[in-house]
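User: Hi! I have a protein structure encoded as tokens and I'd like to know what sequence might fold into it. I'm fairly new to this, so please keep things simple.
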């Protein structure tokens, strides 16, 4: 049987390559950090490259305190639990981490998952059924989309970040038993932070619940790094928050849902990725406890990523690049043309700066860009090196100080 399928798959893979959409993975030889060395498919310059495309916002992926906690976990709690939580997979430290996360967000309870993908995959189906409606932002993460697919509730999609359209969808769904508005805290290709103050106000007006996936904001955004709810002044007012341990909070793996007590309690009884998938490793749990302690006792790291972000945004604007304005350490450098985004990313790599160009279908047609992500792991010297390299490469392509229309006239969309 496989013969026919093999031919089809080979054709499909070839068409992915022809469309220029084949994803090549680079092999990194070092721990994740600002300075890395890369082996494959093309080696990095001898001095390595500076990484500007990790979600390592706080520089914790290989922080000595995180590594020490992880190592210590092996001694005190072993390696694996070989069980789901409800059979024999819950250690004291799992409950300790859940309590620390609830403390951090000022929520009532927290449930851990193997990944935020699982948290989103397991949050809708136990809570919402055929009489309910989920109102979801058009740019929400794939895992929210999949989570909604697994659930029998009706789905209404509103234009991204568009409060008028959200209100229209709230009006259309007034017959539902429960309604929940679901949004990313920050949209990963733009760095735009959702208008949670307005979303919460609309939810109150129309008697809906709110769910925020704060994967790109936890630890980073808001005065004390509590995320988009803090940034927007609505801490404690969002019913369900999902997030990841795999980005700012150390970057290994793991995710969680935090919020109302009864919601979390029901998820422990009914959420399938929690019930039927292995417990989060003690290594991740103890390292995450150390991270939560660090973030609770000091804002030093989120202050540092903020300072790096401001410096980079200012430097790039002064150099003459068009960047999407905002406060997030995700900084999109708009290039509009797909090939231009790839050419510039390649030249930047040769200059020792690792950035990635994105184009349709990952972003909208004609909205190709390079996405830079700042980190507290960067020093000002890294940031300045990146700005200088961008200025050099930007000059080569004659795009400095040029408007969107001028760049499109020269390179096409
Ligand atoms: C990264 C990300 C996820 C997935 O997180 P994992 O813990 O890696 O599964 C989910 N939602 C959003 C918005 C993300 O950015």
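Assistant: Happy to help. Inverse folding works backwards from shape to sequence: for each of the 413 positions I chose a residue that suits the local structure. Here it is:
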């Amino acid at each position: 049987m496989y013969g026919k399928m093999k031919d089809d798959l080979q054709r499909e893979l070839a068409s992915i390559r022809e469309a220029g959409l084949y994803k090549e993975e680079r092999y990194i030889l070092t721990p994740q950090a600002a300075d890395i060395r890369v082996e494959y498919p093309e080696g990095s310059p001898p001095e390595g490259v500076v990484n500007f495309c990790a979600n390592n916002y706080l520089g914790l992926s290989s922080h000595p305190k995180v590594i020490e906690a992880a190592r210590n976990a092996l001694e005190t709690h072993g390696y694996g639990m070989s069980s789901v939580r409800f059979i024999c997979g819950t250690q004291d430290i799992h409950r300790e981490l859940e309590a620390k996360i609830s403390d951090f967000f000022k929520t009532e309870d927290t449930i851990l998952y193997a990944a935020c993908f699982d948290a989103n995959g397991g949050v809708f189906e136990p809570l919402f059924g055929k009489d309910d409606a989920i109102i979801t932002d058009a740019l929400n993460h794939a895992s929210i989309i999949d989570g909604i697919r697994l659930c029998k509730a009706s789905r209404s999609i509103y234009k991204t970040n568009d409060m008028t359209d959200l209100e229209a969808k709230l009006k259309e769904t007034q017959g539902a038993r429960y309604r929940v508005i679901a949004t990313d805290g920050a949209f990963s290709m733009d760095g735009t932070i959702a208008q949670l103050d307005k979303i919460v106000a609309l939810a109150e007006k129309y008697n809906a619940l709110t769910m925020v996936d704060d994967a790109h904001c936890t630890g980073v955004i808001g005065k004390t790094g509590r995320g988009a709810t803090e940034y927007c002044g609505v801490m404690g007012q969002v019913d369900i928050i999902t997030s990841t341990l795999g980005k700012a909070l150390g970057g290994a793996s793991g995710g969680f849902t935090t919020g109302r007590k009864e919601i979390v309690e029901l998820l422990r009884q009914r959420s399938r990725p929690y019930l039927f998938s292995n417990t989060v490793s003690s290594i991740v749990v103890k390292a995450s406890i150390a991270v939560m302690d660090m973030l609770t006792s000091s804002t030093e790291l989120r202050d540092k990523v903020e300072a790096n972000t401001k410096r980079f945004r200012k430097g790039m604007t002064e150099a003459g690049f068009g960047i999407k304005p905002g406060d997030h350490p995700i900084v999109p450098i708009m290039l509009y043309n797909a090939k231009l985004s790839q050419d510039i990313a390649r030249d930047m790599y040769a200059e020792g700066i690792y950035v990635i160009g994105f184009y349709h279908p990952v972003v909208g047609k004609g909205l190709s860009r390079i996405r830079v992500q700042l980190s507290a792991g960067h020093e000002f010297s890294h940031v300045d090196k990146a700005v200088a390299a961008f200025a050099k490469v930007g000059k080569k392509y004659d795009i400095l100080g040029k408007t969107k229309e001028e760049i499109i006239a020269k390179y096409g969309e």
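A useful reference point when you look it over: The domain at 64-297 is CATH 3.40.640.10 (Aspartate Aminotransferase; domain 2). Feel free to ask if any position seems puzzling.
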